[in-house]
Amino acid sequence: MINLLISCLLWGLGFQPRPAETSSGFGSDQLTPTRERNKVEAAVRIFSSLLFLLAIVAQFPAVEFDFLTAPHFHLLAAASAVWGVQMIFRPSVPMDSTAISTALWSFAGYFPYFLLGNLSPFFDKDPTNLYTLIGQGGAVGMLAAYGLFRDIRRETCAEKTVSSSKKTS
Fold first, then answer.
1. Total structural domains in the chain?
2. How far apart are CA 24 and CA 104, in angstroms?
3. Which of 16, 36, 67, 69 could bridge to 121 as Cys pair (CB 3.0-4.6 Å)?
4. Predicted pLDDT of residue 24
5. How many other CB atoms are found less than 10 A from the CB of residue 149?
């Protein structure tokens, strides 16, 4: 389980294992080009990774990190909120694999609670933690869908202008 947690943390920070060689000579990295993360996405990943580590440490019985799951503080939802604000106010950022993986990694702070079965902060104290998690998942999903449709519309409009300019020349 420690290997899984460390692998998740390294993936969240952007380290990925080398893909296995394929018989065709093309790996998945060559088929789908990815872009570099911008500064906000990098900050969201680092913040989510810190929340991930704090949530792991909070699982030990001798440690009290109540601020992570304080009902009216919602620190675990902060990374997703920052990602969402960026996707709304910067439409130039494409909704690609980099943006979607950043959105998924923004949930990293919740992962140790669910993996280790310590769900008491989400049910015992106040149900607003659970409502925040459900709302956060819905908002991230809607923003991802909006971004995908926005990018598809942008591509189809670009193709139409290219094809119309070819017809006139």
1. 1
2. 31
3. 69
4. 40
5. 11
Packed helices 128-168 and 78-89: angle between N→C axes, nearest 10 degrees:
20
Identify how many contiguous H helices and E strands the chain contains and give both numbers.
Answer: 8, 0
C-alpha 137/C-alpha 146 separation (Å) is: 14
pTM of the model: 0.73
d(CA 39, CA 45) in angstroms, rounded, equals 10
Question: Does residue 169 sit within a domain?
Answer: no
Residue 149 in any domain: the answer is yes
Residue 89 within a domain: yes
SS (H, E, C) 24-74: CCCCHHHHCCCCCCCHHHHHHHHHHHHHHHHHHHCCCCCCCCHHHCCCCCC
Cα first-last separation, the chain:
62
> Which two tokens mark 141?
């999903």
Domain that holds residue 51: 2-15+38-159
Dist CA 69 CA 76 (whole Å): 7
Residues in the chain where the model's pLDDT stays below 50: 22-27, 30-31
Residue 77 lies in a domain: yes
